[in-house]
Amino acid sequence: MSLKMMYITNKPEVALIAESAGVDRIFIDLEYIGKDIRQGGMDTVQSKHSLDDVKAVSEKLTKAELLVRVNPIHEKTEAYSSSKEEIDTAIENGAKVLMLPYFKTVEEVEKFVELVDGRCKAMVLLETPEAAEIVDEIVKVKGLDEIFIGLNDLSLGRGKKFMFELLADGTVDTLIAKFKEAGLPYGFGGLASLEGGLLPGKMVLKEHYRLGSTCVILSRSFCNTDKVKDLKEVEEIFKGVETIREYEKLCENADDFEDNRRMVKEAVSKIVGK
């Protein structure tokens, strides 16, 4: 079974190209509270998407699910609305999956699930060392539908130099064992083209299949529409989805997972060493 591919964009025209190419989930990113502080100076995606974007994109999609990352659980202030208001509006505007980022306690996850109230899928982004420490309790929260490991922030929180160190050192394996035991669908990290990225996409993709992952984000390295403006060029780039799907068929029947795992460890070691 192929991975659910997710792509971050708030542009309806790009979302339609991605959907047509076989992307399963269009990902709108509302998160901004505290993100600029913890990721300051890092070359990470800090989107400026809005609840209006949720509505605009949802009205165009016909096949792909609309996933919306909301802000961490928060109360209303003069600067922004409450989590309840944000979640209610996101669902009203067409979100089919909501993702809670940067939580540190079971109570935050329980509050999130309570606010979603079964109106769409509830997914959490495990990306803090605190959340990783209490993963046994997190996976027991009733009403939780999916979980995703956010390698960027989790690696930052653990003082790592490169996000895929967590894949090489067994952290991802350990967390996934907990997800499997709880019967939760899960995914992790981002995927560039098969040959692109500091750690080649082929290696990352095969690790997804070794670990039984169900979803992955197509990274900014796959298609950065802040730089690529021409829609025809965007369409050409998204033809790469078909290439990834073809490689997935090989991964389904692969017998060299341990060899690939060893190569991942070696490649990560060289990257970190540099």
* Total domains: 1
What overall form do the CA principal axes indicate?
globular
Within CATH, the superfamily carries the name: Phosphoenolpyruvate-binding domains
Strand neighbour order, sheet with most strands: 1-2-3-4-5-6-7-8
- Helix fraction, binned, reads 40-55%
CATH topology description: TIM Barrel
Can you walk through the features of this model?
- Strands 1-2-3-4-5-6-7-8 form an 8-stranded parallel β-barrel, surrounded by 7 helices.
- With 274 residues, the protein is an alpha/beta fold.
- It has a single domain (4-273), classed as Phosphoenolpyruvate-binding domains (TIM Barrel, Alpha-Beta Barrel).
- The protein is 45% helix and 14% strand.
- The model has no long low-confidence stretch (mean pLDDT 95).
- The protein is globular, with a radius of gyration of 18 Å.
How do the strands and helices of this protein lay out in sequence?
Layout: E1 4-8, H1 12-21, E2 25-29, H2 35-38, H3 51-58, E3 65-69, H4 83-92, E4 97-100, H5 106-116, E5 121-126, H6 129-133, H7 135-138, E6 146-149, H8 151-157, H9 165-168, H10 171-182, E7 186-191, H11 201-211, E8 215-218, H12 231-238, H13 240-252, H14 257-273
Parallel strand pairs: 1-2, 1-8, 2-3, 3-4, 4-5, 5-6, 6-7, 7-8
Helix pairs in contact: 1-12, 11-13, 11-14
